Amino acid sequence: MQESQNIEWKEIWKDEYLKWICGFANASGGKIFIGKNDKGEIVGVKNSKKLLEDLPNKIQNHLGILCDVFLHKENHKSYIEIDIKPYEVPISYQGKYYYRSGSTKQELKGNILNNFLLKKAGKTWDDIIEPKANIDDIDLQTIETFINSASKSNRMPYIKDEINIKVILDNLLLLENNRLKRAAVLLFGKNPVRFYINAFIKIGRFGKTSDDLLFQEIVEGNIFELADKTLDILDKKFLISQISYEGLHRVEKWEYPYNAIRETIINAIVHRDYMGAPIQISVYDDKIIVWNEGTLPDNLTIEDLKGPHSSRPHNPILASVFFKGGLIEAWGRGTVKIINECVNAGLPEPTIETAFGGIQVTLFKNFLDKTKLIELGLNERQIKAVEYLKKNKRITNKDYQKLNNISRETATNDLRKLVELKIIAPSGSKGAGAYYTLK
């Protein structure tokens, strides 16, 4: 047996370990062994019989819970086992709440404590009544837009015939006792920042570093408007669109896949902690970073987000309404779609990570355009090969010779330089099976 998320070893009993018991009870339960060192070796404990009698009463008096306490003997040494079950209600010790996370005990404070208490009560932040809001705070144009979208998505086809706003909101679980919930204000409110000061998106254009802010924009509105407004501002002020023509038609192509950016923004809107900082979008020459405050659900890891996973949104009512309105196509597939959109466009795989108390998604721009390649000192043959690789995914020495009508020796030298510049990578095979791919 090893010390882990559910097991703690202590050589002697101290009353401060009631905090550990509190943390286990608030999490998934666990065991504390008194009389074992930090390697799990039995060192024995004095007054074990007295502890066996005192601990259950001490735990009940200070925490208000019941725990099983056992006395064990091994090799003539006694040790105590305290078995703590998880509790559905929040447990406090001296007015403070503790939680077992990994192998550490944490005191819960601020927004984290608020979310913990809501969860124990079977509620989420977006499911709480907003006492300061009334039906006059709802934007009728946004309701109408949602009705059209929900009808078109065929997820709420019957809604197109409903004219009573309160009936619509009630069907979307946005009313309780005829009063608006927080989710209603965020989704359909005329001005949500009146109620939640950080319910906006901040966009910044940076130079080489995060200290070099060139200009910024603030995007406000209800969250149905936020995604469209943000995408529009990114397009007009922050990103450069590549322009081409198909016949007489002008075609503009984004630096990043449009659907990847849209999905990233919607994910941030749905999953963010609205009592925390605003969503922040940082645009650089070579990447775009989207950050939102919040944490992953228990038992869900960053690695899980890269494949199909269960959907456990931080704000389930917001997510449900977005789904019914056709803004979310499938449950638990947003991050997978972001990755696939970028990879299919020939861009590097985006990174998803925890950072600064939130979740951060970074999309990388393909810098292998002709201007950048010339700056790196590539000749026309090498540039032609990079363009070939973008379409064909791999190239052999023979392909390179044929593409440029050159000797094998010249092809080998050109390819070696591309490898040194980390633009391409060799397959590792030798002889006829050798090939190169974009790095």
Radius of gyration: 29 Å
Give a short account of the largest sheet: 6 strands, mixed
Compute the number of helices.
Answer: 14
- Structurally, the number of domains stands at 4
User: Beta-strand level of the residues, as a percent range?
Assistant: 15-25%
Quaternary structure: single chain
Architecture of the largest domain, CATH level 2? 2-Layer Sandwich
Mean pLDDT: 88
- Molecular shape: flat
The rounded distance between the terminal residues' Cα atoms is: 44 Å
| Named CATH topology of the largest domain | Heat Shock Protein 90
Write out the strand line-up for the largest beta sheet, numbering strands in chain order: 11-10-14-15-17-16
Question: Which bin fits the share of residues in helices?
Answer: 25-40%
CATH class value of the largest domain? Alpha Beta
List the uncertain runs.
none
Tell me how many strands there are.
Answer: 19
Helix/strand-derived category reads: alpha+beta
Summarize the model shown:
This protein has helices spanning 18-26, 48-63, 110-120, 140-153, 165-171, 182-188, 223-238, 258-271, 316-324, 334-344, 370-375, 380-392, 397-404, 408-420, and strands spanning 7-10, 30-34, 68-74, 77-84, 92-93, 96-101, 104-107, 175-176, 179-180, 201-206, 213-219, 242-246, 249-253, 279-283, 287-293, 351-355, 358-364, 424-426, 436-438. By secondary structure, it is an alpha+beta fold.
